[in-house]
Amino acid sequence: MRELTTPNTVADAIFGAVADHSRPLLTYYDEATGERTELSAATLGNWAAKTANYLTDEIGVGAGDVVVVDLPEHWQTAGIVLGALWSGADVHLPGPDTAEAASEPLVVFTSRDRLDGHPDADEVVVASLDPFALPLRDLPPGVGDYGSVVRVHGDQFVSRSPAVEALDGTPTAEVITEAHTVAERDGIDAGTRVVSTRPWHTASGVLAHLLAPMIAGGSLVHVANAAAERVTAIAAVEKAGVVFAE
C-alpha cells in the first residue's frame, strides 16, 4: 500500500479523497419507508461541517473529548459521525465491541426512543432520522433537535488541530490506515460504487462499512430493510461495482 500523509482528521481524509464533490458520496435506501436520499460529497460535507461547527463553536468540543453517536444507520448518522470526527472528538458508537470511554461523554447524539440510556451526558441531541431532517417536536427540556441546532452553523469547516483519538480511542492515523486496508481487502478503489446492507452503528462497523468505502475515494449506497432480490435490483440501478448483502 502506498505511503500516506496523515490528514488532521478522518473526515479530512475522506473529503480529500473525493475527486468530484458534485457526485454522490452516500445514498440511503430504507425499503420499509420507501426513502431514497442521495447526498453528494458537497451536501454530506455541508452537514458534517455544520455538525463540526456546532460541536466546536457552541459546545466547545476539543481534541479527545468524547462524543457518543447512538443511532442506527441513516444519512443523518453519517453526517453526525463525520462531523464529530472532523471536530477532533473521540467518537464512540455503543456496541459489544466498543471500548469504555475514558471520560463521560460531552455530547450524545441519539434518537427519541433511546433518550433514557444517556442520563450522564452534558449535552443530548436527538436526530429525527427524517428524510428531510424535519425537526422533532415536544422534546424534553434541555434536549436539542439535531436539524435545528446545526442548521444555524456554517457549512464549511477547517480542522483546528490534529485529532489525537478519532474512533473509540483509536488514533487517527490507525483509523485511516485500517480503513484503507479494509477497502483494499474488499476490492474498493477510487470511484467504486458500493451497495451494502452491512451495519455500521458500532465502532468496527462504522470503520469497515461507512468510512472505508469513502476513504478509498468510492461511494456508498446503504440499503436497509430489503430482501436479497431487492438489493440485487438496487445494485443494478446504482451501477454498483461491489455488493455486500447480509
Q: Terminal Cα separation, in Å? A: 28 Å
Here the CATH topology equals Rossmann fold
CATH class: Alpha Beta
Strand order of the largest sheet: 2-1-11-10-12
Q: Based on the coordinates given, report the CATH architecture.
A: 3-Layer(aba) Sandwich
What overall geometry do the principal axes of the alpha carbons give?
globular
Protein name: TIGR03089 family protein
Organism: Gordonia namibiensis NBRC 108229
InterPro entries: ANL_N_sf, Rv3268
Give a written overview of the molecule.
- This protein starts with 9 loop residues before the first helix and ends with a strand.
- The protein is built from 7 helices and 12 strands.
- Helix content is 33%, strand content 20%.
- With 246 residues, it is an alpha/beta fold.
- It has one domain: 3-Layer(aba) Sandwich (Rossmann fold).
- The strands form 3 sheets. A 5-stranded mixed beta sheet has the order 2-1-11-10-12, with helices on both faces. It has a 5-stranded parallel beta sheet with strand order 4-3-5-6-7. Strands 8-9 form a two-stranded antiparallel sheet.
- A hairpin with a 2-residue loop joins β8 and β9.
Question: What would a concise description of this structure say?
Answer:
It comes from Gordonia namibiensis NBRC 108229. The protein is an alpha/beta fold.
Layout of helices and strands:
Blueprint (H helix, E strand, L loop, with lengths): L9 H8 L6 E7 L4 E6 H19 L6 E5 L4 H12 L3 E3 L14 E4 L12 E4 L16 E3 H6 L13 E3 L2 E2 H14 L7 E4 L6 H13 L3 E6 L3 H10 L4 E3 L2
Parallel strand pairs: 1-11, 3-4, 3-5, 5-6, 6-7, 10-11, 10-12
Antiparallel strand pairs: 1-2, 8-9
Helix pairs in contact: 2-3, 5-6
